[in-house]
Known about the structure:
Elements lengths: L2 H17 L3 H10 L18 E3 L7 E2 L1 H7 L8 E4 L4 E4 L7 E3 L46 E5 L2 E8 L9 H7 L2 E3 L7 E4 H14 L3 H12 L11 H19 L43 E8 L4 E2 L20 H10 L13 H4 L8 E3 L1 E7 L11 E3 L5 H11 L9 E5 L3 H4 L3 H7 L10 E5 L11 H6 L26 H21 L1 H29 L2 H17 L20 H14 L4 H4 L1 H25 L5 H29 L24 H8 L14 H4 L1 H6 L5 H35 L5 H33 L5 H6 L12 H4 L28 H54 L3 H37 L1
Parallel strand pairs: 5-7, 6-9, 10-15, 15-16
Antiparallel strand pairs: 1-2, 1-3, 3-4, 6-7, 8-9, 10-13, 11-12, 13-14
Helix pairs in contact: 7-14, 15-28, 15-29, 17-19, 17-24, 19-20, 19-24, 24-25, 24-28, 28-29
Amino acid sequence: MHPGAKISQGRSKGQQRQWxxxxxxYLHHLLDREAPPEDRRCIVCEQDGVSKCQxxxxxxxxxxxxCRSQHHHNPFHWISQWNGQFFEQSCLAQVGLVIHLGHDGxxxxxxxxxxxxxxxxxxxxxxxxxxxxxxxxxEFQPKENTMVIIxxxxxxxxxxxxxxxxxxxxxxxxxxxxxxxxASFNRPKTAFTFRVLxxxxxxxxxxxxxxxNYYSKLRRMxxxxxxxxxxxxxxxxxxxxxxxxxxxxxxxxxxxxxxxIPSTGELAxxxxxxxxxxxxxxxxxxESLDDWKYTRSFVMDGNFxxxxxxxxxxxxxxxxxxxxxxxxxxxxxxxxxxEAADMVEKSSCNNHRAVNQANAARHxxxxxxxxxxxxxxxxxxxxxxxxxxxxxxxQMNMDYALCEAARHNMEGISRAVTFYDINCQYNKHFRxxxxxxxxxxxxxxxxxxxxxxxxxVHGHQDSCYVRYASNFIDGIGRIDGEIMExxxxxxxxxxxxxxxxxxxxxxxxxxxxxxxMKRTLCRKYKxxxxxxxxxxxxxxxxxxxxxxxxxxxxxxxxxxxxxSRLNDPEAxxxxxxxxxxxxxRKEIELRLLEEGSARNAAPSRRSVATWISTGLAIExxxxxxLIEVRRMRKRSTETQRLDIARQRDRxxxxxxxxxxSALTHLGEGFDADDxxxxxxxxxxxxxxxxxxxxSKTSDAWTNSPELTxxxxxxxxxxxxxRHCMAEDLIPLEMSLREGQANDTLHNxxxxxxxxxxLFRTSVRRAKSQALxxxxxxxxxxxxxxxxxxxxxxxxxxxxxxxxEPGQDQLQKFKPLxxxxxxxxxxxGDPNARGQRNESLAWFWSVEVDLGGPDQSWNEEFYRVHWLxxxxxxxxxxxxxxxxxxEMDWTCNYFSWRATQWGDRMRESLEKRLPGHAxxxxxxxxxxxxxxxxxxxxxxxxxxxxxxxxDE
Length: 951
């Protein structure tokens, strides 16, 4: 927990303790406010005070006349009237308050009532007989000719009189100019104040409040006892809020100052810090937009929470902003989907289809979710690049989104990096799909570099990490971002309303990021400063000990890999350890399955290789759990014990399933209920702990799943396998055991080399206690991995001995001794003086190929560590360059916006539109202040950094 949070939490508890002795006093004064003052006088005329305003400061008392006159400009306050015993809920209509439109709130001198708003009865809510009130009171007896006015304080019934002068505007416009949005336009009898509409939209954005919940709150604020008697205007709120949202959006984007209508994506804000030629980027001299600094970075993602049901009457939908914001225009998008082929390609990576096809079979849904594109560095949504999914997340959906994103303010930019969960598959044929479609457009000059986010890439095959992780992409800096998950939209909306809601949310998200961009970039600048320092130290430690000729060679190989990555992603494997491994357990299992299929094996033998491999995996899990239990000892926390219990429960389920499957593969001679004592029980000895110490603590876990002996052929023994007619399983397990031994020895070599590198670059060079502590914690973590793999190998070899191995296998897989796991100088620096008689242990040369007789494990590991440390340092240097540029671009963007609104103000003054001019001036000032604030903060931060660097 942050120290500041602890202080705040402690202060809060102290305040609560101080509150306890005061609560009775506060409660007394709270109840005392229910009674009137002893003299009960009007605070204005000192007559008999009968009305108390609950919303005026101090809840003052008024007489009826003064209450009416004092609330002439506050008509939405709630009052209560004294009935001789207590204050009873009432309303301003009961004291005769009338709202006059025009003439500064005074009654219109024209006597004619030509608008006749209340001709014809207003439609009232239909109530069931049991819902009708059987009590009397002001709140159940609304005055005649009153309108329903919804304010953020509740639902009011007040009389509104329009101006009847000959040149008067229509009633709906009169009401609108006075801050009321009418629910209808001919004879409006319901209106919403601008305050309540703004409050609802903000509640919807910040709290996710639906229109139904919001209006339910207003009804309860109006009448706590009988909220169902308050007029239901929920549907009117839905309709008017859509219109208000549209008006506000057009106003914000300057379309009240223009004669043309918005076009594609023009009702959407974009990122102020991303390079946008002609807006915040002005290229001067011989500089070109082809430079890596002007790379546009995109992140593509989907969100399956924003699903949508089929509309009841799709032909009757009214679209207010189709394609004008972030969601793409529906007609062209539908034509693209109708023509695009739904290509299902066989994945060469892990199977992500289950994730991408979420909700795909839910036929009641018109949209199973949404997907789209945002800038990867700042998380701002790209205008006109959000699409609906129809059957899960398909390539045709994301193709359209990416092509639309690549058209937004990118004139002259020739390089873009895209981050997508499945880019290793998605990007393969992207250009071919674009070229084959009439509705996908992307300039051939734009180079797309595929990437996968750091969080998602670990769910891929290991090879995807160096090929697609942002750590190894030149010119991208340090990025992150999961940006789609915050969007939502209630199911019950119409399709146009849902689109408008999503557009509004994304616009608000981009606006919030825009006004906070100063703080974001300052934080990024500080992180980059620290990142350059830390990554520089880490790289220098490796660079100092690497020979110059090897560094030259490694740099050349790095450049070749980066230049070839687009056409050959495998070129990036240069950042991986280039070791040809012995066959792994998975490879051997695959070979055995293919051989079984080729010879049409019996049903009981078809999947036996997978069954045995599952048993080996269960044994490895048992060993890992045994070591964890042993390390826990008696000083364990409740959380640790709970974690162990969960692991045991999961492991027991795997063992039960494996044992049941044994009946199929071991034949009738095997009985699953046999006494385990008949099997060869072998309790692991951990190489790093004292076995005698473990024997004292193991008694409590005698029946635990980590000690259960599973019915593998090696545990049954050769004789018993022959008795069960399962002798053919022995060579299968032996082959898989060889693969398991190869895997563990390979992992053992990797972790021992990592340990050697840590000792040489971190432990020995640590100059402070904090650095030493951090270095030793890393060593401890690696040592635990060494212990685990050494224990697995020891167990594997013991099981192989029970299967009567051949002489070659005995010679190849030798016993593993404790002293062989120590890091000697031969591992850390095989060329060091005095190492002529020092040799590596036998397992360093078991079926490995480093590409030549002169290479060593040490050199290969140093190469990879050096390349990765250099890549990290390069990314942080790029990050600093990009952040400094983004600071300039952000200030340029704000200045461009301020100038744009300033021009609109001058045009409005020329056209004699004072309201337009005032709004333009206010907007211009807002962007000017944002520019000045950002500029001052950036200059101050950079000057402080320079001074710190000089010191």
